[in-house]
Task: structure prediction
Amino acid sequence: MSTPPPFRRAAVALQVPFHDLDPLEICWHGHYVRYFELARTALLQTFDYDYPQMRASGYAWPVIELFIRYAQPLRYQQQIEVEAALVEWENRLKIAYLIRDIDSGRRLTRGHTVQVAVNMVTKEMCLASPAVLAEKLGVTQ
Result:
């Protein structure tokens, strides 16, 4: 399996807002998915294959798997960096995530998502990523 170019990563800086806290005054676990999504969108934009471009290419890419390992809770007003890195692309998109505390660099959370291509006309899942993805990544097959 080919390895994507090492520059296929992106990060976003965020501050944990008050409205994301739960009654224990830590970030509610469900909001981490939104933080991953923000980093994933930034990653997809680095190779011009964000959701509008996916739709225009005729493919939807639903998330079929989500994993999150909560190592440390996120707190109100904490400055965090959420990094997304493309780790697989030939048969699916697998994106790894890392949330770090900006001040200390300490790892707080890690996870990954898996997305598969679905032909928007036939509604069938593709067993291999469509050629448009390789083109966008600048990878020859």
Remarks:
- The longest strand covers residues 79-88.
- The two ends are 10 Å apart (CA to CA).
- The first helix runs from residue 31 to 46.
